[in-house]
Amino acid sequence: MTLTKTKSKLAPLNLMGFQRDMLCVVGVLLVISVTLGSAGDIVHQDDVTPSKKGCDNNFVLVKVPTWINGIEEREYVGVGARFGPTLESKEKRANHTKVVLADPPDCCSTLKNNLSGEVVLVHRGNCSFTKKANIAEAASAIAILIINNRTELFKMVCEHNETDLDIKIPTVMLPQDAGMNLKNQLEKNSTVSVQLYSPLRPLVDIAEVFLWLMAVGTILCASYWSAWSAREAAIEQDKLLKDGSDEVLNLEDVGSSGSVDISTTAAILFVVIASCFLVMLYKLMSTWFIEVLVVLFCIGGVEGLQTCLVALFSCFRWFEHAGQSFVKVPIFGAISYLTLAISPFCIAFAVVWAVKRQLTFAWIGQDILGIALIITVLQIVHVPNLKVGTVLLGCAFLYDIFWVFVSKWWFHESVMIVVARGDKSGEDGIPMLLKIPRMFDPWGGYSVIGFGDIILPGLLVAFSLRYDWLSKKSLRTGYFVWAMTAYGLGLLITYVALNLMDGHGQPALLYIVPFTLGTFLTLGKKRGDLHILWTRGEPERHCPHIQLQPSQ
């Protein structure tokens, strides 16, 4: 990306140029994950496979808990067929039913079994799924389990010329390993019984509430930190000008911290760079590539956590001297003693998370590192005016929609959602996400939000607060409260859409950008500030000793 760098003498960040640039690069790479969803869709609509009367069910995941000789064993997950009745959604209403092996095993001819209300276990192949189901129903089976010939699940559909679709028993496919385990137990003369039910997800899970609070709270904290830094820098520059100090002439070379302004060109190039990186993730998605992303995430997380902790401890007078005393370190340059003291903890925290990230509670560490990284990126990277913000969010809006929806036409699946879920990687997903376990969801999984859904609109929200403070606007006459509220509402609407779509991943920026950017542009136009917001942006960038007072 083409970035324009500016420095301020008293900015509170103590990042050297090398560290700052590295953090910005890592942050840009991590921003590409801009989608929101819940981990694992349980209902799958399908507009490709044939649909007709008697064969128009949605594909639903099915829980299959098993009992061997009366002892509860593993629970498997299958998929329901396009045909047949819908499955029970309540576990307590699903019957424990004995399982028997089909004879013949493929259930393509009349069964020799003397069935009386059992579930029949059959192999896939040699005839259609509907024929198997009809034969099993004729033999008095109450359900049919079909063992797939692969470890993944397969959508069971009807053939175009099939007419005998008045099937009264449910049909469920099991992965090959699950089906073979049950078959082996039956061949040992063990008594096997199962339950078949497909529980519904709750309309709203508490995880989504906490995720919303995390996203809004992160932008809120980052915006106030960014505005405070900008105001302190403006006050210092104003003081130097009033004193007639020559030091202001060398401001670009003074201090060890600063911000990075996004240019219009960089905002446009974002789409190209992010798209290339996303396709690379999609094509190279594997265990080793996830490891590379984890390393990048840890580097950014360490820098972010270190920066946030240094800024936090510097607020206490006990650490003030350590924060202002520096030692020169090769490559990194001058680093405060406080930073040196905090860095080992941050590195250890990231390493422990990386090693233990498969544990059930590892999401806590991922969220801590992610939030720290997001806050730091929003503190360092600035949108200088509304024009750049509009271009950036407009491009991100199109990027999000293209890779979530339109990419299905070329890749036959949503590239963004595949990458976000970490398909083919052997893990729960890429690390560039904030995630919280779905606490009251019978299917488990996580509610997730991509870093880009926070950082990109957060850049505009942070700009609004910097503008308000530097223009001496109150909360009522300013833009921050409106921008922050618009972001919160946009994210809320995203969750509503997510639940209405049965958990299918949604491009959050599809809803957030119109709310946030639309509110800003409309309000600026109504108040007569749009020209200043669009072209000049933050007052101190042009004349630090004069406080601009746009029309109220």
From TrEMBL:
Superkingdom of the source species: Eukaryota
Protein topology in the membrane: Multi-pass membrane protein
InterPro entries given in the database record: PA_dom_sf, PA_domain, Peptidase_A22B_SPP, Preselin/SPP
Gene Ontology biological process terms, A to Z: membrane protein proteolysis
Domain PA: 99-182
Subcellular location(s) of the protein: Endosome membrane
Protein purpose: Intramembrane-cleaving aspartic protease (I-CLiP) that cleaves type II membrane signal peptides in the hydrophobic plane of the membrane.
PANTHER family documented for this protein: SIGNAL PEPTIDE PEPTIDASE, SIGNAL PEPTIDE PEPTIDASE-LIKE 4
Protein name: PA domain-containing protein
Organism in which the protein naturally occurs: Quercus lobata
Gene: LOC115955077
